[in-house]
Specification:
Length: 734
């Protein structure tokens, strides 16, 4: 591996014009594809195998033209103080609005509040349900504008009007904080390298990689049914790892220059050694992201594969574009320890010969391994305590900020009709095999009326064939409550008994039931996914480190950091701790996909630091140093770079907390805090403490396994053997 990458590094250094041209051409090609591609629609949110999805599929067959997955809107009206919605002027304003809504070309149906008994008991609140032929993200801007204008016309008539539902779904905005994150990354790179030019290379290559990845996703979005969240996730992860991978190679290049090597040779050795670590670190991230497909949720699978593709691009750019740029820079990139004149280069250091911070810290940990280990484990354990109270769910309009019309509509409906009105359940009765379909429909309705927490059960609405009907059930509790979840399970349990008596099938669907099924599916998939990802990465790390205990320690450390990060997410987004500081306007259940997504992404990112830091330790050990000294040497060369990489990644992820999308905000915070825990507590404290305690046993590998494993030579031992003996003696004297 090292010898192959060494040749790639030298080739890219020499053929830099050709390499740069290829990447610029790919960026231009992807950009043209993105600009000319048709606009993306909404990601099809299908959940194969769930009852809610089976019901949706059945509705498509038995109720053609119903648009079961079409966008919906609830235009909610509230009368001025002291008036009622049944007053003549208010009623006339509502009827005019309903007529205006029906004129839309994409509108399937509009329910009149007065004809459909959609007026609250006290007469102050009413609503009109609008059903569209297409999904929310597929709605034309003209349809959305028409909906807003109709609501505004009713406001002009003196009514309070708010619009709920997914018809006004907007593309998430990340805000200026993402730019701030990139700015912080730039400052950290300048401090790390002491050179504006060297600092610019990781940023440039990361932006090119993300540009290619996101543009490709945009170009394929319509064909592959990719949503806007897919490109946001890809840019988030691609930017973070792209900067880190380039940082690793540039740092190693400067270290090779400091040892006296020529620039082309230094570029080759940097790619051969640090590049090997980048390849395996990238592989762990790709495994974690592609592994999301085992959950069998198409949207999550597409997000994972798209982000994995962006990571693969980041690896390839780091291995080729970075040595090409170093070739362009020439002597303007200084050896390690030297700064450019603009940043104070040429000055005499105040304390020459003093060990760097990484060396001093590692020496301290090696002397006090037990204390450091206990402190690190107890600290992460304390941070993980809130995770025991984790509540999972998918956000609805009730989780929106109070400044949005969707949230205000949600609150008005709760006020007028009860909290459960925002999450009605749709019961689909399949009586195709029943001798008496109408009896079956009536039996189902009567059974549901007797259940706890049921407020309203509408009469069955059969299809034209009369073999299938829908029944709407309004719970007494809000959609995200445990009580509503219990009601869904109770209806399904009762439906099994009804099926035996009437030869019919009872299926529960609707947004609320779909959210419950998604949460259950994600929970069921968490352990198999964890076993798959950690197991594959464990085998990969055995090959890299040629050790059993080091990969085991890496996996256990990851579990500590991810549990602590989940605890922090619960504390902020569920309990509301520091919610004002984090700009979290509404607390509630943690999104169902957060744990499994966090496990996948954080594991891949955590292994970046593990591979880069510990390969330097193994490199020193293989070259003859004692285990404790190898730990110190690894920190001497790697701590500064890993620290910079972690700070950059935290800054990039934190930048996405400015998103208007609750999912992106939560993911950004969760990944940022997880990287902080993993990099600064697990990798910087627990890892050296454990290695110091294990000594030589850390690098133990059964002989039969050693013979069976391929030698990938991440440490670059083959490069040392191939080097000219005279050169090696000269380097030793230097």
């Amino acid at each position: 591996m090292a010898s192959f990458l060494y040749k790639i590094g030298r080739l890219a250094f020499r053929r830099r014009h050709f390499v740069a041209l290829i990447w610029v051409a790919l960026l231009a090609l992807a950009g043209v594809g993105a600009a000319s591609a048709p606009p993306a629609g909404n990601t099809s949110f299908s959940i194969p195998g769930t009852e809610a999805q089976k019901a949706f599929d059945l509705l498509e067959q038995r109720f053609p033209g119903m648009s079961a997955d079409g966008a919906t809107a609830r235009v909610v009206f509230k009368a001025p103080g002291g008036e009622k919605m049944t007053d003549h002027d208010n009623k006339a304003a509502v009827e005019k609005t309903v007529k205006e809504l029906k004129s839309g070309s994409e509108v399937a149906s509009v329910a009149d509040p007065y004809a459909g008994h959609a007026v609250s008991r006290n007469g102050t609140i009413a609503y009109a349900s609008v059903k569209y032929k297409v999904s929310g993200m597929e709605l034309k801007d003209s349809s959305k504008d028409a909906l807003k204008q109709a609501a505004q016309h009713a406001r002009d008539a003196g009514l309070t009007v708010e619009v709920g539902g997914d018809a006004l779904t907007a593309t998430p905005e990340t805000g200026s904080s993402e730019v701030i994150g990139i700015g912080i990354a730039a400052v950290v790179l300048v401090i790390t390298f002491g050179s504006l030019l060297a600092a610019g290379f990781p940023l440039l290559t990361a932006l090119i990689g993300v540009g290619i990845g996101v543009s490709t996703i945009t170009a394929l979005a319509s064909a592959l049914d990719l949503g806007s969240t897919t490109s946001t996730l890809a840019s988030m992860i691609g930017l973070a790892v792209g900067i880190d991978y380039a940082l690793f190679i540039v740092s190693r290049y400067r270290a090779e220059l400091a040892e006296g090597r020529e620039r082309e040779e230094a570029a080759g050795r940097a790619v051969g050694t640090a590049g090997s670590a980048v390849v395996f670190a990238g592989l762990t991230v790709v495994i974690a992201l592609v592994g999301l497909s085992v959950v069998d949720i198409p949207m999550l699978t597409k997000m994972g594969i798209a982000a994995a593709g962006t990571v693969a691009i980041a690896v390839l750019i780091a291995l080729t574009m970075i040595p090409a740029l170093l070739g362009y820079a020439g002597r303007r990139v200084k050896p390690a320890g030297e700064k450019s004149r603009l940043l104070g280069g040429g000055r005499t250091p105040k304390r020459p010969g003093r060990p760097n911070m990484g060396t001093r810290w590692a020496s301290f940990v090696v002397r006090r391994p037990v204390a450091v280990l206990l402190l690190g484990v107890l600290g992460l354990g304390a941070a993980a305590i809130p995770a025991a109270s984790l509540e999972l769910g998918l956000p609805d309009d009730g989780a929106q900020p109070t400044s949005t019309t969707q949230r205000r509509a949600y609150d008005l409906l709760s006020e007028g009709f009860g909290p459960g009105f925002n999450g009605p359940l749709m019961i689909v009765v399949d009586a195709k095999d029943s001798a008496h379909p109408k009896t079956a429909f009536t039996e189902v309705g009567n059974e549901i009326k007797g259940l706890k927490d049921v407020v309203t059960v509408t009469p069955a609405v059969p299809n034209k064939a009369g073999d299938t009907a829908t029944i709407s059930v309004v719970p007494g509790s809000k959609p995200s409550s445990h009580t509503t979840e219990d009601l869904v399970h109770a209806i399904r349990d009762r439906g099994a008994a009804i099926a035996e008596k009437t030869d019919s099938k009872v299926l529960v669907t609707g947004t609320t039931a779909m959210n419950i099924d998604v949460s259950q599916k994600l929970n069921d998939a968490l352990l198999p996914y964890l076993a798959l990802v950690v197991g594959l990465a464990f085998l990969l790390l055995i090959v890299v480190f040629r050790s059993v205990l080091v990969p085991l320690k890496a996996a256990l450390g990851f579990l500590l950091s991810v549990m602590a990060a989940l605890g922090a997410v619960v504390a902020v987004f569920q309990w509301g701790w520091l919610s004002g500081l984090m700009n979290v306007e509404q607390t509630g259940p943690v999104m169902s996909m957060m744990p499994i997504f966090m496990v996948g992404v954080v594991f891949g990112l955590a292994m970046d630091y593990e591979v880069f830091l510990v390969t330097r330790m193994r490199e020193a050990f293989v070259h003859g140093e004692k285990p404790s000294q190898a730990v110190v040497t690894g920190f001497k060369h790697g701590a500064r770079v890993v620290t910079a990489a972690a700070v950059i990644m935290i800054a990039v992820f934190s930048g996405f907390m400015g998103s208007s999308e609750a999912m992106i905000k939560m993911i950004g915070f969760g990944l940022a805090i997880a990287v902080f825990f993993d990099a600064f507590i697990v990798r910087m404290a627990i890892v050296p403490a454990v290695l110091a305690l294990l000594g030589k046993r850390a690098w133990w590998l059964p002989k039969w396994l050693e013979r069976a494993l391929p030698n990938v030579d991440v440490e670059g031992e083959g490069l040392r053997k191939d080097a000219d003996p005279e050169e090696e003696r000269e380097l030793v004297r230097v």
